[in-house]
């Protein structure tokens, strides 16, 4: 099962400086355009991407907010065929039970190895219309501060806040700035820095009335950074790469995608993998053509793939 990086947005943060570590975060391959950019489970999403080989077939799969890679079928098998101009257009309908959060759909050319990724968001189901409830934002990464309100309580009802993590365990929870006025309860909660990705639910209960309201927010998986030094170099140059988000010290394989779309096995040196972070170096061939290249590392056990862009000038 192929598995790819989850996000094209805000990928460059968190990289520490150091002479022996790679210091430059990179952007990813040109993204696929997605319409709409968000929708609830069951929504049909349309994708458009170019840069493939004329007439080739594409493989597609999706990455869920909790990091799973799942096979995906376009709404028509004919959509797997790339047009003469290298452009592919396809649609995919999300399952009715699709997990809320940020998803990515990955398309890869079977001959060219060209990879395009489209990001989209599955929205949580809307809260009950009455009585009134809301959470803002609806989704965020660990460390996000969420603000809630719920109405319909008795004015002097003592309120209990119960939080359920994605693993299903519910706990009485202390919240920030709780306030009740005219039957409306307002409060805030900051997700821990190590909060597990998935849906978190607040159950708010009146101590006397036993009236309850439930709200949900989604914790998104943090983006795994990648990088290369230098970001641009000549043929024959030494490039040093890193990628996070792999599994422990698993075995890995490498390949490069050339500017002409050809995928080639990469012979790398000084490979080090520890706690899911891989560091390696690669010397570009003396006859390497100029243009945009990408280095791909894939975990043998996990199937996780990371892509690093660089340029040969």
Structural class: mainly beta
Q: Helix tally? A: 0
Major beta-sheet overview: 5 strands, mixed
Please give the CATH architecture of the domain at 1-26 and 224-313.
Answer: Sandwich
**Named CATH topology of the domain at 1-26 and 224-313:** Immunoglobulin-like
Shape: elongated
As a whole number of angstroms, the C-alpha radius of gyration is 23 Å
Which CATH C-level class of the domain at 1-26 and 224-313 is it? Mainly Beta
CATH homologous superfamily caption of the domain at 1-26 and 224-313: Macroglobulin (MG2) domain
**Order of SSEs:** EEEEEEEEEEEEEEEEEEEEEEEEEE
Distance between the amino and carboxyl termini: 34 Å
Please report the total strand number as a whole number.
26
Adjacency order of strands in the biggest sheet = 2-8-7-4-5
What proportion strand?
Answer: over 45%
Ranges where pLDDT stays below 50 over 5 or more residues in a row are 1-27
Question: What integer is the average pLDDT?
Answer: 85
How much helix, percentage-wise, in residues?
A: under 10%
Quick gist of this model?
The chain has no helices and 26 strands.
Describe the structure.
The chain has 313 residues and is an all-beta fold. Among the domains are: 1-26 and 224-313, Immunoglobulin-like, CATH 2.60.40; 126-219, Immunoglobulin-like (Sandwich). It contains no helices and 26 strands. The strands form 6 sheets. Strands 2-8-7-4-5 form a 5-stranded mixed sheet, with no helix packed on it. β7 (101-109) and β8 form a beta hairpin.
């Amino acid at each position: 099962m192929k598995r790819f990086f989850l996000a094209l947005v805000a990928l460059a943060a968190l990289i520490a400086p150091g002479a022996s570590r790679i210091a430059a975060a990179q952007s990813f391959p040109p993204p696929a355009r997605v319409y709409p950019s968000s929708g609830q489970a069951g929504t049909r999403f349309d994708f458009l991407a170019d840069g493939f080989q004329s007439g080739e077939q594409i493989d597609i799969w999706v990455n869920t907010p909790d990091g799973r890679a799942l096979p995906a079928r376009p709404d028509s098998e004919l959509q797997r065929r790339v047009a003469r101009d290298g452009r592919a257009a396809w649609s995919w309908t999300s399952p009715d039970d699709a997990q809320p959060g940020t998803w990515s759909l990955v398309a890869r050319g079977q001959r060219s190895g060209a990879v395009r990724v489209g990001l989209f968001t599955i929205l949580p189901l809307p809260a009950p219309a009455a009585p009134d409830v809301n959470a803002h934002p609806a989704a965020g990464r660990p460390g996000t501060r969420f603000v809630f309100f719920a109405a319909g309580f008795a004015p002097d009802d003592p309120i209990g806040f119960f939080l359920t993590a994605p693993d299903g365990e519910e706990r009485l929870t202390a919240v920030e700035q709780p306030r009740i006025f005219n039957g409306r309860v307002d409060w805030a909660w900051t997700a821990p820095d190590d909060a597990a990705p998935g849906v978190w639910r607040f159950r708010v209960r009146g101590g006397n009335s036993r009236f309850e309201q439930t709200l949900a927010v989604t914790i998104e998986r943090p983006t795994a950074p990648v990088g290369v030094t230098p970001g641009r170099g000549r043929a024959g140059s030494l490039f040093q790469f890193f990628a996070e988000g792999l599994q422990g010290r698993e075995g890995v394989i490498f390949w490069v995608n050339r500017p002409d779309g050809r995928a080639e096995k990469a012979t790398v040196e000084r490979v080090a993998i520890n706690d899911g972070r891989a560091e390696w170096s690669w010397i570009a061939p003396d006859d390497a053509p100029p243009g945009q290249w990408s280095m791909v590392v894939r975990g043998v056990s996990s199937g996780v793939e990371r892509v690093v862009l660089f340029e040969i000038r």
